[in-house]
Amino acid sequence: MPALIFYGSHAVLTNPSQVIIRNQETLSQHKVLVLNHEADSLPKALLDVAQSVDALALDYHHYLHLAPQANAKLRCYFGHQLPHQDKYDTVIVYFPKAKPLAPYLFNLAAQHLVADGQLLVVGENKGGVKSLVKLLPKYFATGIKLDNARHCLLFGSSLIDTAPEIKLSDWTSQYQLATPQGNITICNLVGVFSEKHLDQGTELLLSHLPTLSGRVLDFGCGAGVIAAALLKAQPTLSLECIDINAMALASCELTLAANGMTAKVYPSDGLAQTSGKFDGIISNPPFHDGLASTTSIAQSFVADSAKQLQSKGIWQIVANRHLPYSDTIAAEFGQLTVPAENNKYKLYYFQQA
């Protein structure tokens, strides 16, 4: 996670945001759009100089951080696109951690810029922003380095030609995936993790999929691999798919449509935006190694799952075998079953009394 500090009277800002503040005079009285912003208050801080600011988060955590600060001059959105066609004098793009997402963000920026409008792209040196000049599409002027500070680079450009309309199909890779439940079609948008084959963890989970019924939750649905396999095997399920990534949610919707399936797909911070109890909770949780925060996220997920599991409800996840799930699960559920494992992953199963 980027370093956070206080900047003047403003709330905590990340390093890339501090670099934008250093150059905020270029935004004087501009209508500004901020794309892919981080979990800080940069869009609100820009109101010191800008006429108005709109902010589109592709990460639901980042949206939830900023949304309470919305006002007449600051509008906050979550998703892979804006719900309107408004134009802006300046669009600021935070260079994405998933580099293949960058050209999509530039295309989106161009859709919302006035002619000759200003594009600013900021990112950490180690995050791929150095390749900005090569990545910028032809409808933008050659990128110029404007600042280099706090281990970040800021580039500037302007819109010099009409950009193509955004069609999600142009940004989607579609392929067939063999699963224990049969072949399914996967639609994967840029920036969403995909290997075009079943990863070991998901394969272990799907190879030992329990028989479910009623209302089932797919936590961290990604591109919809588990969701589509579930519905292929058990088409009568009332399935809900949640994630924090806008591109993942859009991918999941495309995957379900490509397979003629339906489910409720929506963003949720953990289980916070879900409601009621589930007859089943299935997941290959998006928790990674080496980050202290992932342990607390995992603990919250397990604790919330225990509260939201219906009587006789089934809970099953797959996880890296060396991660400390066993104690957490045992503490919340009171018992623990490992129906299958391999040298890298363990399957954890629980059925409510």
Tally of discrete structural domains = 2
Q: Strand order, biggest sheet?
A: 5-4-3-6-7-9-8
What's the architecture of the largest domain, going by CATH? 3-Layer(aba) Sandwich
Q: Give the overall shape, derived from the CA principal axes.
A: elongated
The CATH topology of the largest domain turns out to be Rossmann fold
Describe this structure in words.
This protein has 353 residues and is an alpha/beta fold. It folds into two domains: 155 residues, Vaccinia Virus protein VP39 (Rossmann fold, 3-Layer(aba) Sandwich), CATH 3.40.50; 183 residues, 3-Layer(aba) Sandwich (Rossmann fold). The protein is built from ten helices and 17 strands. Helix 8 links the parallel strand 13 and strand 14. Helix 9 packs parallel to helix 10.
Task: Offer a few descriptive terms.
Rossmann fold; alpha/beta; seven-stranded mixed sheet; 2 domains; 353 residues
